[in-house]
Amino acid sequence: MVDYKLLMALAAVIEHAGFERAASNLGLSQSAVSQRIKLLEARLGTAVLVRSAPPQATAAGQRLLNHVQQVRLLERDLQADLPQMADAAGRTRLRVALNADSLATWWAAAVSAWCERERVLLDLQVEDQDVGLRRMRSGEVAACLCAAEQPVAGARSLLLGQMPYLAVASPAFVQRHFPQGVAAADVARIPAVVFGPDDRLQHRFVQQLGVTGEFDYHLCPSSEGFVRMLEAGVGWGMVPALQVTEELETGRLLQLLPGQTLEVPLYWHYWRSGGQLLAGLTDELVRVVPGLLAS
């Protein structure tokens, strides 16, 4: 049987991106954390960490991290049944990966009441919707929200709904680049704003218009900053309709091609053996998210 003190040391190193912060979180010296990792590797006969900056879990380490996530959730269920086991704070920390656009729009409204009711502290890891599943596969989070349907081994996925994205730009930008009106073929010939290297929304929209090939774009890894860049006329970009309702109503932003949207599916991935807490969050999201996406 694996010593759970050793597993918690591994989880802390990954979650806090290094030995120093992991040691502080565990109330140990950095040397003690390192020794626990070495002992874990010696007992298993294989490496669990790639000692890079930040450290990364090996394939064996990822399996252990997945196990740790599920054990934490099951322990929470046990604490609910045996209140004397609960810590002084009585709160549970839950690590979830989700895309920045959901965080900037509907996520808070969806989970606020549930967090208060269940006394949960969220540790949110922001990832692009197309790659958020990597965090779950690596064992760093208990659940994730992303655009991919296929779950990792040991997990389930549920479709919560579709998030509509609009291609928008400032009136000045439209006038400057499309004085005769916006043509689909011209959209790929002017600068865009892209959230990050893994963001393919703009690329997918251009392909949806029947245009192929690369185009120039700025990188802006901030949902709020993204909209500000568009308002300033730096480029055009794909933004959730929920996020720019006011900007469109006031005319600060315009749709490049009214009626043309890009629907992005939102899948909720969670561990099958994640216990009552994760099942409760899943039920809450299934209940409230469709209405929030439609508002």
Automatic annotation (TrEMBL):
GO terms for molecular function: DNA binding; DNA-binding transcription factor activity. Keywords: DNA-binding, Transcription, Transcription regulation. Belongs to the LysR transcriptional regulatory family. This is LysR family transcriptional regulator. It comes from the Bacteria. Residues 2-58 form the HTH lysR-type domain.
